[in-house]
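Changelog-adjacent note: as of this version, every example in the card shows the full chain rather than a window. The one below runs 566 residues end to end.
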Amino acid sequence: MFLHIATTEGDRPEPSQDFLIQKLESGSSRLWHEIQQKMKTFILENNMTHFKFEAFIQVLKVINRLLEIGEQFCQSDSNILQEAMRRQSVVYFRSYHNGRLDELKMFLENETWQRCPVKSTFHITQLHEFRFLREAPSFSSDLATSTSFNQKSDLDLFDRYLYTEREHPFDLDQTQTTMSSSPSQYSDTNSLDVDDGNIVNGNSYNERKIRSNSNSSTDSDIENNDHERKRSLTHRNHSVYLDEKNGLTIVTNTTLNVTRLFGRYMEMIEMLKPIAFDVIICMTQLFDYYLYTVYTLFACDMNEIPVDALSPQLRFTIKRISDNLIANNDSEVAHHVNITLSAHLSPLVDINSSTSVLYGLPQRIVAAESLVFLAEQFDFLLPYLKLMIPTDRHTFLTQFYSQTIQVTRELRIPIYHNVSANVLDYMSIALMISKVNWDIGEILSQHNVYIDILANELQTFRNRFDHINEQLLSIPKDVYRTIWDQILDKIFYTMVEGYDYASTKQCSNEGRALMQLDFQQLLRRLERIIEDLKPLPHKEFVENYIKAYYLPEQSIDQWIRDNTVK
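Full-length structure tokens:
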């Protein structure tokens, strides 16, 4: 080796400064390459699938700090280190997500579908898992400019730590959970840490006792204040139903657990950008499984779903989830990743028997509205999720939003149909109508008795409905309208069927006038029973039917075409 010697006044040979800098620069790259190789071996030879989530996040933070060191030490992208951690992260996250799907199934099968009390000020960002949205105002801009594991720091690590013995570059946040090799990778998932006490603490197994015996003065005050507000707004003898903006948030503990998982998955993305798209797909699977469970447990449990109860888009979504996420047996689960069996309703939940509260209406409301809440949270997170993946991957999120998130409210129709289809004996109503003598020779001024029977049954239902709203669960106004819309649709359709059957026998013009009298009397009674629902939906169906008998013969064909039920 030849050394370039510079001569000083004392003839002392010294290495050229440029030469030393050159050697150090080339040597630092080789040194960092060797460090990466050793770290690669350490990372890939360890099985991290049994790490708790917080422990694995800690590993990612250490690797991120190494990437910063490599950048500042020798301007290296540390591709070897990044690829090793990407491979390990894929293995870990696949195992973690499968565990979460299995755990979600267990939670749903133990869920009692009772509302978990949350404050009226509750927001998703108050959950501990979403603290990064509160603590980092520049989160959006950081994500938009990040191309590696996470955003590189502008801080010169060597300037900061070179002259101090108290700290070194790997002094990460000591409040984080340290690495653990505990065999239970799921032991932390039931953690219900909530910032500012916005949620009454509990878990899926004991939540019934906790909710019924909650001694939280703050939450009790909120519930009581809302109850008093409802009482002060009461119209006559009827309860008041609040819209979504003024009503209470309806969630279960399982709903909150899924929301927390959204936060954990987003934290994983923040730490490891290369698998961001895979993680987001898994987030959508959590939502899909919750939606599919609510559908199978509460929309398919009693009656055959009417053809018009599910839109084509909702049918497509249900089929997509069934084909891609739901296994037929244990063997499929064992041989495929990211699929699981469908959940079963807890034996503690009674929604079908005559002894249940309006055929499980409170539980159905909690199930349907908690799904709506979950969809709203996903909608809120959508802009952040788009920032986490390349633009060319946005199509997936856009389709998921339009095909799944936006159709969740439509599940209310088949879910509440199982209540509206059973609260009245529609066959008996049709039978009573068929027994009326419509072949009369004079116009009567007294309506038939079936109108009184029907109105009394509807008043009884309204009283039970109000009792649920005031004593058990605050019912959203949209739910109130949906159920009454379905009941009126069935009543009016039943009346037309009864009148049509009577027409196959003898029915005089005076009999038609009696039909009109009966119907008008029912409308007057309905306006008193559901005075806060105006105009009454579907009444035109009966009116058009009765009026059709007075149409000239040449207009009948056109009327049939216009009024055929499709």
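Structural remarks: The beta strands are 5-6, 14-15, 326-327, 340-341.
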